[in-house]
What does this fold into?
Amino acid sequence: MATLQINSLSKSYGDKIALNQVNLCLTPGVYGLLGPNGAGKSTLMNIIAGNLTPDAGEILYNGENVSALGKSFRSILGFMPQQQGLYEHFTGYQFLSYIAALKGMDRKQAKAEIETVIGLVNLREHSGKKLGAYSGGMKQRILIAQALLDNPKILILDEPTAGLDPKERIRIRNIISEIALDKIVIFATHVVSDVEQIAKEIIMIKKGNILGEGSVQYFFSDLDGKVFELNIEPERLGEVEGAFLVSNVSFHADQMTVRVISDSSPYPYSFSQVRPTLEDVYLYQFADEMGNE
It folds into this structure.
C-alpha cells in the first residue's frame, strides 16, 4: 500500500510561520484538509507538489525522499490549484491535450484519457468552446479534469468544488470518492459538508499547526453534549448570539430555531441536545478566526 510520510515539515515567510513541524502519514483514501485562510493549507499542498521548498523536514513516498525521486515522483502527482490561471484562448480539449503533453503522455493514451476525464466532469458538450467563455464552475471542472490525467497516485485538490452548483458539487464529490480507492487524495475545502461524507480522515490545520487528524467521529467526540437547538422568539436572537457560539439559524412558523455550541446547558432557553456535525466542529475550532476569512 502506498504511503506518503510527512516528517517535521516547516516553512516560514519572513516572520510568518506558515507550517510548524507538520507530521502526517497518508495512505490511499480521501483526506479532508480543513482550516481558515492563512492556516497553511496551500503551503502544505504546494510543498508536496514540488512548487515550494520547505525550510526543514522531509517528505517520503513509499520510504523514499521525494526530492531524490524527482521527476518520477512528479509523474504520479495530479494537482488542481485554487487559482484559475487558464489559457483562455485554448478550447477545453486543447487545454487538456496541452497538459497531457506536459505530462509526457503519448497521443493515443492522451486521447483516450481526455475523453474519459472530460466526461467525468460533465464537459464533453463544451470541450470545443474556448476557456474564456467558460463559467467559473466550468473552469473548476476543467481544472479537476487536468489533475486526473495520467492516473495519478497522489491527487491534490485545492477547493475543487468552489463555484459549483449543488448538483455538480455532488457529482464531483462522488467522482473523488470513487477514484480514491487506490489514490491518496488531499481535498482542501471551506465547504465542510463536501468532505464529511467521503473523507477517510480529517486534517485540521490552524496557524501552521496540525490541530488534529482522525475520522469524522474522532472530531465529533470533542463536541459530545455541547451542541443544542434553541427555540426562541426572533427578537431574542441578539442576546443568544451574545451568549453562545451560533452555528445555524432557521425559521419555523413564528419560532426561530438557533443551533448553538455551549460547554454547559443553555438555560434559561427551551432547548434540545443534538448530534454535532463537522461544520459545528469547524466553527468550534476556528471561531476566533472566522471574521478574517
Summary: The first helix runs from residue 41 to 48.
